[in-house]
Amino acid sequence: MADNNRDVVILKHGEMSAELELQHGTVGPQGIDITPLFQKTGLFTYDPGFVSTASCRSAISYIDGDQGILRYRGYPIEQLAERSTFLEVAYLLLNGELPTQAQLEGFVSDVTHHTMLNQSLLKFYNGFHHNAHPMAVMVGVVGSLSAFYHDSLYIHNPEHRALSGLRMIAKMPTIAAAAYKHNIGEPVMYPQNHLSYAANFLHMMFATPCEPYERSPLAEEALDLLLILHADHEQNASTSTVRMAGSSGANPFACVAAGIAALWGPAHGGANEAVLDMLEEIGDVRHIDKYIAKAKGKDDPFRLMGFGHRIYKNYDPRAKIIRKMCHEVLHELASDDDPLFELALRLEEIASRDEYFLERKLYPNVDFYSGIIYRALGIPRNMFTVLFAIARTVGWVAHWMEMMADPKHRISRPRQVYHGADRRDYVPITERS
Ligand code: CMC
């Protein structure tokens, strides 16, 4: 029950009633502040999957899922995708404002000069099996950065926080490319300071000590675009994991390692890899109907990967941008008729007319087309989610910094509705039936 004369919601249960204040955001739905609910009523709220729960106040990104809107710090994703660069977007997400020319140059130089890895850290790679999934390597190596940078681990010092964040953003492509080189048994390539963030990653992936990598400007542009589109997405599972880990005062490297682990799942960042597996499994447009039927089957766990989103009940604005880039990349870098892209387009078309998908508002999400571009750039499938992690590190760091700077932040400690056994007495093993 809302009291329209005051900014409160009144919750009544039997004789009991509690006044709960509303939290107003700049745009979007208001929130009911239920912090005092338990104290006032002895009741918890129950919301598995946080469907109706805002876990924090944040000023970093904004999504309107019904309208298909995504903004970083107020700027529409379409404008940033068209006119900005990944490091400029990173500056924006971290600092709240677009940089001046001098600020951008300073930030790019700072990132560039933190890209190298400590030689001892590189030895860690030898401990991983040669065919270790690069996401497993990422979790381990990023977490272990905390064993190296003791000079910036005092989380209550904003300068330490900024330095740790910068180090992670800068080193992530180097760590990722080294994981790939370990997989294929090639020597690790060092970063090149004259290259852009995206070009440097491509260089570390594909150059060898014997031959330079001749990069295509379109490959660099496409990768930069994908990094922009994946940089932040408010309180998704991995970002919430980073915040949750950080709320206990854990160091930022450990928090981001936790975020990478959460991202890996196929319902989240692992979907880009799963989409290509699925397209290959479908194999031919003639089999689409069969897979659509499987996806609709109540008892079949199969889902159309790259379809659906907790928040977007409209076309994911990022997918629209990527779809367009797919055409350009395939036209210039591949033979133009990638059968998997044709299959993806056809699958989207068929699903978009299907009652099941229409009713549930299931549209292609960011991951549906991104793998097609990565594939055209020569990036192997098990690196797709790693690329997502590189980009999202900016969002993770921005959210961790926002939370740490908030004097009101508390340890995240959800409650539960217990439904296990009630109190009972221990029975000696000889007396158990
Ligand atoms: N294929 C078939 N049915 C689906 C799909 C799908 N991809 N996604 C949702 N549904 C159905 C689901 O079975 C349910 O049907 P019903 O109401 O009959 O039980 C209904 O739609 C609602 O689904 P839900 O699982 O309650 O929705 P959710 O918000 O909990 O899950 C999701 C969101 C993204 C995990 C889910 O849509 C999904 O598993 N999609 C495939 C994986 C994927 O592409 N993930 C990438 C997400 S975007 C990148 C990122 O930011 O992580």
Structural summary, described in words:
The chain is α+β, with helices and mostly antiparallel strands and 433 residues long. The strands form two sheets. It has a four-stranded antiparallel beta sheet. Strands 5-6-7 form a three-stranded antiparallel beta sheet. The chain has 18 helices and seven strands. Helices cover 49% and strands 6% of the residues. The model has no long low-confidence stretch (mean pLDDT 94). Carboxymethyl coenzyme *A binds at residues 49, 233, 236, 267-269, 271, 295, 303-310, 360, 362, 365-367.
The main pleated sheet reads as: 4 strands, antiparallel
Largest sheet, order of strands side by side?
1-2-3-4
What ligands are attached or bound here? carboxymethyl coenzyme *A
Rg, Å, rounded: 24 Å
Spans where pLDDT lies below 50 across 5 or more residues? none
Q: Given the helix and strand composition, which structural class is it?
A: alpha+beta
Q: What overall geometry do the principal axes of the alpha carbons give?
A: globular
Features:
single chain, 433 residues, alpha+beta, four-stranded antiparallel sheet, three-stranded antiparallel sheet, 7 strands, 6% strand, binds carboxymethyl coenzyme *A
Q: Concise description?
A:
The protein has 18 helices and 7 strands. The chain is an alpha+beta fold. The protein has a 4-stranded antiparallel beta sheet.
